[in-house]
Amino acid sequence: MRLHLPPDWKIPPVFANRVGDTAGRQRAMAADGHLLLVLHDPPVPGPPERAGRPFWRDPSGKWRSTPSDDGLPALKRHVAAFAERVEVLERQWQIAGTAEEYFKLLRTLAPLHRTVRNLHATLQQARELVPADRDLINLRDQAGEIERMVELLHGDVKNGLDFTIAHQGERQAERTYEMAVSAYRLNLLAAAFLPAATLSAIFGMNLAHGLEPGDLPPWVYFWGVLIGGLIFGLLLARVIARPPAPITRPDVKGTRKLR
Hints:
By secondary structure, this protein is α+β, with helices and mostly antiparallel strands. The protein is 59% helix and 8% strand. It is built from 5 helices and 4 strands; from the N terminus they run αββββαααα. The chain has a 4-stranded antiparallel sheet, with helices on one face. The two termini are 59 Å apart.
């Protein structure tokens, strides 16, 4: 972004020599009673370059600005534009609820915070160069308040993002625990009926195994296999349900070297 100084501005030549083709950083320059401020517009998403705006104060205290040449009111509107941007972002923060929304706010707040911080520093520098200008003192204080608002909003958004991530992690952990409990119960159920199913399959085979039905009625074999299988299944399920042995931790107190 090129910085254009109007040709009708009767500024000291030193100012023109210190201003390059681009706006550069925000700064204040003084010479022969003149004051030149090079400020940046509020950042917008997209291009990384910052549009520069010059404000000139002549020795008589009259301000000039560009593109609108109303001087001091334009400088006040320039500072107020940052406060309006912070209010818009604060309303977005109040309705944000997802990690993506919080992240977008952080990406917008980061360049805004840097710009407001440099704006505050530039106005403080200008106030030191022209200590008798009450308007610069008021604008410096307003920029400082905007910087504080941006810092507070940045902290709130970051806390909201951290809480959202932590809350989603807790919910995911709860779902994982519920799935583990379901799998555990399913394993117990399978263990309880596995012996019965295995015995039924063995005795249901058309092979001579010496335990074919003889003098006893069929219901005796049926209930015997079922009850025996359930007994073995419950014993197996109890073995599976036994809690694991606690993990032993080595005693490192005796090996720690005190300095």
